[in-house]
Amino acid sequence: MNQFELENASKKMTLAIRTRNPQISTDILAALQTLYSLEEVAGVMLVTVERLLFWSDSEAVVWTVRNVIPPQLMSEIQRITSVAVYQRLIGKGLIPGQDFSVDGHGKLLLNDRAKTAVLAH
Predict the structure, then answer these.
(1) How confident is the model over 2-21, as pLDDT tens digits?
(2) How distant is the alpha carbon of residue 26 from its chain centre?
(3) Nearest CA to 107 among 76, 82, 74?
(4) Longest dimension (CA), the chain
(5) Which residues, in sequence order, are CB contacts of 89 under 8 Å at separation 6+?
(6) Pairing label, strands 100-102, 108-110
């Protein structure tokens, strides 16, 4: 997936989600899943969520998680974001296995020090 395809796919998903019509959103998502890998579709959804948050539409993000994103795609999104957060925490001097870790399902586990570092950006 190149930058143009990512932008185009994210734009379509964003507009579909803003309609709050689950059929439109799931149809576009299904079409993307036939064209791109799971990792690429997860990337599209991450860009889409970022866009919605930029527009201060957090309700659309919650609606999307509840109504559009299937479990397999959600797991891939969590995997991608866990790696990014993991790298960020190491960069802030936190210690893997002591301050944070990842469980067998890819869920990030944080102690209080790591939670503070994540919230501090």
Answers:
(1) 999 999 999 999 999 999 99
(2) 16
(3) 82
(4) 45
(5) 96, 99, 100, 114, 117, 118
(6) antiparallel
**Amino acid, res. 73:** L
DSSP 109: E
Query: Where do we find the tokens 């993991």?
Result: 86
pTM above 0.85, yes or no: no
Is residue 94 within 8 A of residue 113, CB to CB? The reply is yes
> Which letter does DSSP use for residue 103 in this model?
-
Which 3 state secondary structure label does DSSP give 110? strand
Place of tokens 């399902």: 105
Q: Where are the alpha helices (DSSP H) in 1-57?
A: 3-19, 22-35, 38-54
